[in-house]
Amino acid sequence: MLWSDPENEPPKELRDTQDMLRRLGVLVALAMVLAMLVLGVR
Question: Where are the bilayer-spanning segments (predicted)?
């Protein structure tokens, strides 16, 4: 690793995409739990 290498930080678009995917994953997990509860009640 050279001293002239750029900082190891992903570009803003990549970080935004990762944040969106993380939120999407949380939403999908909550939806699955909700679906299981609804199906379990019936």
Answer: 20-41
* SS3 of the chain: helix, strand, coil, percent, to 5: 70, 0, 30
For residue 30, the SS3 value is: helix
Question: Which residue range forms the structural domain that includes residue 25?
Answer: 13-41
Per-residue pLDDT of the chain (42 residues; tens, 9 = 90+): 556 666 777 789 999 999 999 999 999 999 999 999 999 987
- Quote the pTM value: 0.61
Q: Which residue has the tokens 């994953």?
A: 25
Give me the number of domains the chain comprises.
1
- 1, amino acid identity: M
